[in-house]
């Protein structure tokens, strides 16, 4: 729940990230309590019956809800400006649940083609098994969205900036098309985080995150969350999660709560470092294309800066020599570590063609600009000068 002061003043997002959703026990603890429990005790059998009938409030089973998990959900609700939310065990559980809870056989999903590999699997391969058809479009092309709408289109799905080539999609324009078609717009906002981009303010109906990334921020825990209005959660998502069980553990929720306290500080520092690294890469003769929304050379720079507060912490770039050249460069790095994760305090680099997007066909990767020489760098919280020196040494 969003916090206000005693005299009714609404708190800003950075303050909400510290205080939002906090519920204290009678002990008056400063840090949020961690409720490591699977079940709950009722005073009487009649009380248990009433709770199962939703005739009185309270917790029933931690697969359904848990006090620590609920605090994490409430804090994210305050940050995102959502009506309600449900946390999940992973980011992919959040993406899958957001779709499957709402769609049925005979429905159609319209999605941008530039997606994380697992998201594209859900749209292209998993949903059709259950009779839900899908169409992929170039998300940057607004006319392509309009032309691909069908009478049975019930959901639009996109991520912006996209993984890994950082394409930017006009959320507001796509939301208008979705709503004219009577469909919901789901936005994967993991790269931007709620610190740099707030899709609901631009018309998105549902926002999903892999909390594993920047929300945790230190590579410790898996988690995800789906945020939407109260009706979507109550009518579609809540019971789906209750019956299928991709629950976030109370311990992981507690870690995420503590991480949210520094999310704003971390993400803005990440972005400052990434901007410095991107500008260095853009001027280095050993580097081909550089993909970073904060650069004026990015083809959608103006759109990015109109819906984001900064360029984020992900930089993609091409090195000469294809896969061999990319591997040789990455293996020579000393400060930057090789890992397919992102949003960590440590700078991490991966080769999308052989990791996150290796399941795609060579044709699909080429269509998305994922060449053999492309590398994705998640800039951490190290000194930007050290990162630039590490890159320069590896290039040499």
What does this structure look like?
By secondary structure, this protein is of the alpha/beta class. It has helices at 13-19, 45-52, 67-80, 91-100, 117-129, 142-148, 171-180, 193-196, 230-244, 250-260, 263-283, 301-307, 322-332, 362-368, 384-395; strands spanning 84-88, 108-112, 133-137, 153-159, 184-188, 206-210, 224-228, 287-291, 314-319, 337-338, 348-350, 374-378. The strands form 2 sheets. The chain has a 7-stranded mixed sheet with strand order 1-7-6-5-4-2-3, with helices on both faces. The longest helix is centred in the last third of the chain and has 21 residues, at 263-283. The chain is globular.
Number of helical runs? 15
Strand order of the largest sheet: 1-7-6-5-4-2-3
What is the general shape?
globular
Please summarize the sheet with the most strands. Answer: 7 strands, mixed
Please give the share of residues in helix: 25-40%
Oligomer: single chain
What is the arithmetic mean of pLDDT?
96
| Poorly predicted sequence stretches spanning 5 or more consecutive residues | none
Rg, alpha carbons:
22 Å
Beta-strand percentage? Answer: 5-15%
**Which CATH architecture of the largest domain?**
3-Layer(aba) Sandwich
**Total number of distinct structural domains:** 2
Can you describe this structure in just a few lines?
This protein has 15 helices and 12 strands. By secondary structure, the chain is α/β, with parallel strands linked by helices.
